[in-house]
Amino acid sequence: MILLYILLALAANVLLIAFICFRMTFYVPKKIIIGPDDYPIPDGEIYEPYREQMVAWMKEVRQLPCRELTATSHDGLTLYGKYYEFSPDAPTEIMFHGYRGSAERDLCGGVQRAFSLGHSVLIVDQRAAGHSGGNVITFGYHESKDCLKWIEKATEEFGPERKLILTGISMGASTVLMAAGNPLPDNVVAVLADCGYTSAKEIIQTVIAQMHLPPTPVYPFVRLGAILFGGFDPNRADATAALANCKVPVIFAHGDADAFVPCDMSRTNYGACPAKKELVIIPGAGHGLCYLADPAGYLSQLKAFFDSVI
What we know:
Layout: H1 2-25, H2 51-62, E1 67-72, E2 78-84, E3 92-96, H3 103-116, E4 120-125, H4 143-158, E5 164-169, H5 171-180, E6 188-194, H6 200-210, H7 215-230, H8 239-243, E7 250-255, H9 263-272, E8 277-282, H10 290-293, H11 295-309
Parallel strand pairs: 3-4, 3-5, 5-6, 6-7, 7-8
Antiparallel strand pairs: 1-2, 2-4
Helix pairs in contact: 1-7, 2-3, 4-5, 6-7
């Protein structure tokens, strides 16, 4: 009987730790909706030198005409996006933001960057973010399926002749890379993956280590929490594995001073991609800051790549 109590106590502790890991890593209890007078930037000292520019971008984008669009995910969530048109026949970038971000916070500079390349843009709130439904972040597992739904929505809205580019930053980059491992319609002509990670498992283990915790014993609790309380297995969110089936041209970008997602993860993803590809490394750029750190160089390399594939 004592042994049974001990086993039950151990099981209860395992479940409790797994639940805490799930809440800390994957669960979003209340989505942050940005107010008209709010201009949030990502947390961290690396973003402070660019605060003025990021706020200016948000103000500019709020003055642009846009059209609100929604799509329905495979599991019934309402997904929200905003479409900004450069011209009626311009290629359209479908943009996906990062972990615990939102379209407006993470992708405002993306609208200006896309316009400078002559592209229209659809920025979307990922599930569990902004105006989209859901409360669980799955590191690309479900988000990549959402990306496929946005391709369907864009094709329905703009016609099958509209050329589409899948664009993502951080978790959004890995989202579009995972989506690119699926059969895609011919109007999807390119992918831009900026500072994406290789897999959910590897980036979570990396962050655990950055927190000065041992990844090997901690990660199984994180995975168990995702399976039991989130209904998905993070080991199946693998951009590198998906890229083995990619047939769409991909340009990878990463800052070599990225202290969150190691630059080597983009190098690994680049090596795994059998399609036409290019790797852009921006010296001195931190996480998600390639465009801000070197706007002219970044744009020049993107333009050359897109001109060669569109």
